[in-house]
Amino acid sequence: MPSLSIIIPTLNEEECLGRTLSYLNFLEPPPEEIIIVDGGSQDNTLSIANNHHVTLMTTSTKGRAIQMNQGAKLARGDYLCFVHADTLVPSNLVTIIEKTLNNRQIACGGFISLMRGANSTRWGTSLHNYLKTYYAPLLFRPHLFFVKGLRLLFGDQVMFCRQRDFWNCGGFDTNLPIMEDADLCLKLVPYGRICLLNRVVECSDRRVAKLGSFKANIIYLWIGILWGLGVSADYLKQFYADIR
C-alpha cells in the first residue's frame, strides 16, 4: 500500500499544536510519519512537538512554502498531506487519501474546512471558503475549470497529492509569501483533476475572531480577486497579517 507523510509548518503555534498532534496520534491506520518544520518559534512550539512521536526539523528561513518544501524533501511517503497547526482532521484521514489518489485521474485533493472557535462556528466564512474553491477558478481560469477540472484549494483545506507529482511540478513556489496553495493547484492540474472531498476538517477561527467576520471576509475576497487578476503575492501579503 502507498504510504502517507503528513507535513506541518509551524511558527509560534503553542496554543494549537498540541491538540492537532493529539488528533493525529489517533489516526487509524497511522501515517508513515508526521513531519513538523518550524520556522523559528519563540514560544513552546518545539517543546510540544518533542512530546509527540514526530520528526522535528527547523529552518532558518520562515515561510509556509519554504517550510513545506523542506518537509517534503525529508518525507518518505508516496503521498504528501499538508496540515496547518490549527487544523483537526478525520480519524480515517489516511484511508480517505489513499482511496482518493487511487484514482489516477485525480492529482490533488482537499477537504471542506469548517471554521470553529471556542464558542462559535463561523458558518458564513466557512460557506464562503467552500464556494471560493469553485467560483475562483470558474471566474479566473474557466478553461481549466471546465476542461481540466481545476479547483482552487487553500491550506486550511488539508491539501494532499502524490510526492512524485509534487516534485515534477516544482513543489510550492518559495517566492510566494501567500497563495502558494492556490498556485500549487494550478501547477498540479496538468497531472489530473483537483478534487474537493465531501468530508470536513476543522480549523481555528482565530483570524476571524481577531479581525471580525465582515472585515475578514472582505479581505479574503479582495485578495482572491486581485490574485485572480494577476496581482503580485508580495503586494497582497500586506492585507494578510500573521495572527496567532
UniProtKB/TrEMBL annotation:
Cellular compartment(s): Cell membrane
Pfam families reported in the protein's UniProt record: Glycos_transf_2
Gene Ontology CC, one term: plasma membrane
Keywords: Cell membrane, Glycosyltransferase, Membrane, Transferase
Domain (Glycosyltransferase 2-like): residue spans on this chain: 5-141
Family: Belongs to the glycosyltransferase 2 family. CrtQ subfamily.
UniProt function note: Catalyzes the glycosylation of 4,4'-diaponeurosporenoate, i.e. the esterification of glucose at the C1'' position with the carboxyl group of 4,4'-diaponeurosporenic acid, to form glycosyl-4,4'-diaponeurosporenoate. This is a step in the biosynthesis of staphyloxanthin, an orange pigment present in most staphylococci strains.
Protein name, UniProt field: 4,4'-diaponeurosporenoate glycosyltransferase
Source organism (scientific name): Crocosphaera chwakensis CCY0110
